[in-house]
Amino acid sequence: MAIKGFGEIAEKLRRSTVMVQPGERGNGSGVIWQSDGLIVTNAHVVRGSGARVQLWDGREFEAAVIARDPRLDLAALRIPAGELPAAEPADSSQLRPGELAIAIGNPLGFVGALTTGVVHAVGPLRGAGSPPWVQASVRLAPGNSGGPLADARGRVIGINTMVASRLALAIPSNTVSQFLFAGARDAWLGVSLHPVTVPRPKGRQFGLLIIEMEPGSPAALASLMPGDILLGTQEGELHSVHDLAHALAEGSPRLLRLEFLRGDYERLRRVTVQLGSRAAGKNAVAA
Q1: Cβ-contact 21, 27 below 8 angstroms
Q2: Which residues are 63's β-sheet partners?
């Protein structure tokens, strides 16, 4: 079935899609969410404090990561540019199975590649965690991550993230809006983490290894360092990344007590981190 104005819809969506290059190798995609330079992508696309962003017109900018939530797999970037062709988000709660879905991205180096399919469902998927997903029969490949999944009118209904059970999974647009406007910055710690297990006196224990840290972040201001291994919070031991995300999202005042290891697997250290904005003062010291 032909869609009236489909070419114009696809072109507009392409112009709102960017290429995100986190390092020398690999690339992902992103969506211009606001015309003032706010871009949304996946947290697994940008694991550090910045990335290089290429617009549809060929311009390139250094982007700063201003918010990141590994639990949701979302990241917000900011580039020094204005009057950009921002995408129009849709209300993902109104999606129904059978609707047309359009995916734009940069798979395998093909800039602005388009693929279409239909929405199969909106909700949790067994084996892919408890959060809701927009599940669609569009073909994704490496490089599509972080790009838009849109409806027949070109409105963004989700952020393409992964493939499971032969379906593309996208983070619903309503979840993206909540991430951007309902406290994502307050939960910002400013680190990239990798799950590990470490030998402890009572046996092996789960931990989160700090592999990278943004200068001036709450973690850096608290004197944490790359190589430190986070073991727990005031709520108890960490058993997954989700436990840390849960701790970051709660608490008043915005103070978080962390337990960690540094070099010595037997000596447990503690530090209090002041969460919140980048302007927070240095008022905590690792113990």
Answers
A1: yes
A2: 51
Asked, as a colleague might, if the bond just before 195 is cis with ω within 30 of 0, I would say: no
Instruction: Tell me the per-residue pLDDT of 191-229, one tens digit each, with 9 for 90 and over.
Output: 877 788 999 888 889 998 998 887 888 888 899 999 999
Rounded CA separation 240/237 (Å): 9
Residue pair 99/65 in contact (Cβ under 8 Å)? The answer is: no
**From the CB of residue 224, how many other CB atoms can be counted at a distance below 10 Å?**
25
Asked if 212 contacts 23 with a C-beta cutoff of 8 angstroms, the reply is no
The residues annotated as belonging to the active site are: 44, 73, 145
Rounded (5°) CA angle 174-179-185 = 160
**Using one digit for the tens of pLDDT, what is the confidence trace for 149-173?**
999 999 999 999 998 878 999 999 9
* Total residue count of the chain as it appears in this document: 287
Domains in the chain (CATH in brackets) are 6-78 (2.40.10.10), 92-181 (2.40.10.10), 191-274 (2.30.42.10)
Question: Nearest 5°: CA angle at 87, between 82 and 90?
Answer: 145
Q: Residue 48 and residue 124: Cα distance in Å, rounded?
A: 28
20 bridge partner residues: 28, 53
Mean pLDDT score, 117-132: 81
Structure tokens at 82: 């204005």
3-state secondary structure (DSSP) of residue 36? coil
Judged by DSSP in three states, 249 sits in: coil
What is the rounded CA–CA span in Å between residue 145 and residue 238?
A: 28
Asked if pLDDT for residue 280 goes beyond 70, the answer is: no
- The CA distance from 163 to 136, in Å, is 10
Mean pLDDT calculated for residue range 32-41: 93
Whether residue 250 has pLDDT greater than 80: no
Q: How many CB atoms lie within 10 A of CB 25?
A: 6
